[in-house]
Amino acid sequence: MARVTGIGGVFLRSRDPVRLAAWYRDNLGVPMSEKGTVTFHWLDTATNDHPGTTTMALFAQDTEYIGEPHQRAMLNLRVDDLPSLMAKLKARGVEVLPDTEDSEFGRFGWCVDPEGNRIELWEPAEGM
């Protein structure tokens, strides 16, 4: 069954990613890298075959990756069968963006919620 299996990441637009990363580090104790990323590892449910992670990443204000300029954040949702889920969403009339991407991290596709927010769907590569 095609379904979401967890949150793969949260991505935020930022006018100054370096400054915002420092703010998250300094004020909330989030161990952000200098590039503005942090990956949290799932200790309770991780296995050697499926370690599971959640990533937070900061993007420049003018990025097109997150969607339309008014969208401040984008959910990245882990999925177990990207092609089937995207087909199911299309069949339900959900706006599904036509492009997908394959990388060393896995397969990515995108859909848009009813309020116009772009959502990234991620089927992790084996062992992620």
UniProtKB/TrEMBL annotation:
Pfam families: Glyoxalase_6 (PF18029). InterPro entries: Anthracycline_SecMetBiosynth, Glyas_Bleomycin-R_OHBP_Dase, Glyoxalase_6, VOC_core. Residues 6-124 form the VOC domain. PANTHER family: GLYOXALASE, GLYOXALASE-RELATED. This is Glyoxalase. It comes from Lentzea aerocolonigenes.
